[in-house]
Amino acid sequence: MGNGAHIRFWLDKWCGNASFSVAFPALFRLAADKQDPVARCWDSQRLDVCCGWKRPVSSNAELEELLLLRQSIGSLFLSNSADRWRWEGNKDGVFNVADFKNLLVQQNGPDRNSVMKWIVWVPLKVKVFVWRLEMDRIPTRLALQRRNMHLSDVSCGLCGAVDESSIHIFTACELSCGFWTAIGSWCKLGPIFAFDIKDLLLLPAEKTSKESKKIIQGIVMVSMCVIWVARNEKIFRSKDVKIGELVAKVKSLSFLWLKSRSRYKQLVWKDWTIFPLYMMQSCCASVLVLRTGSVFY
Ligand SMILES: [Zn+2]
Question: Which pTM does this prediction carry?
């Protein structure tokens, strides 16, 4: 705490484990301006509360809370320096991603059921999105409502038929079902039956080589991101969602990223759009050539 000019006395959590609006509800109701900063509510010369009240503090509950409030603040002295937020996640009080990640793991426990693979050729922003999706931490309308955000409509941004949860958007929505069928046919995976995000992340269901698996898993992750972007564009820009366009986007983005971020530098666009694992087949063909000495292209 510096001069108390930018920290809200009632609404910010600056002293103790809860904001004063929560810790002292009777006084909070009585406060004339609930947005007042600390500097306007605390007299550090007299070490006393100096809030504006709608009427004098009078009931037993209010007087009792006032006493506790004074005790909580104690002998806080407001200086001339500016207020500064301190992060409580480490000793320095300065936020950093590594400590934040450790805190998340401590709070939630390590998710032993996590199936997402950290595919190298997939960009970090896509991986982080899928990681959050697997933990059901993306801001779907139902998730926002759970966090007490008032929404007049919680229906799916893509189909509008049912409430919008992440499982619905990515596995049950009519649009995503059609989309996964198209992706499954492009990757020759057969029909995709997914009831959970993990079902998608566990693709391909059939046994295949490690390299093929990494490509399919990456394509699934890119696909998830493309669905989410389409959902956002429909909600915020009223843009129509067409399955063909989404699949084309997945093909081009995954082609670009795999070609530039993996050893598949020779990837050919025309072959890729037909079957993304075509190079595995040609790899087998070249082995065949080496073994037999004949050309079987
Ligand atoms: Zn839907």
Answer: 0.60
- Whether the Cβ atoms of residue 72 and residue 44 lie closer than 8 Å to each other: no
Number of domains forming the structure of the chain: 3
Place of tokens 């080496």: 290
Q: Ligand 1 centroid to 35 CA: how many Å?
A: 39
Centre of ligand 1 to C-alpha 201, Å, is: 20
Per-residue pLDDT reduced to its tens digit, 127-159: 999 999 999 999 999 999 988 888 889 999 999
Q: How far is the CA of 197 from the centre of ligand 1 (A)?
A: 15
Residue 94 domain-assigned (yes or no)? yes
How much distance in Å is there from the Cα of 282 to the middle of ligand 1?
39
| Rounded Cα–Cα distance for residues 142 and 124 (Å) | 26
Tell whether 167 and 77 lie within a shared domain.
no
224 alpha carbon – ligand 1 mean position (Å): 14
Same domain, 262 and 162: yes
pLDDT tens track for 168-186: 999 999 999 999 999 999 9
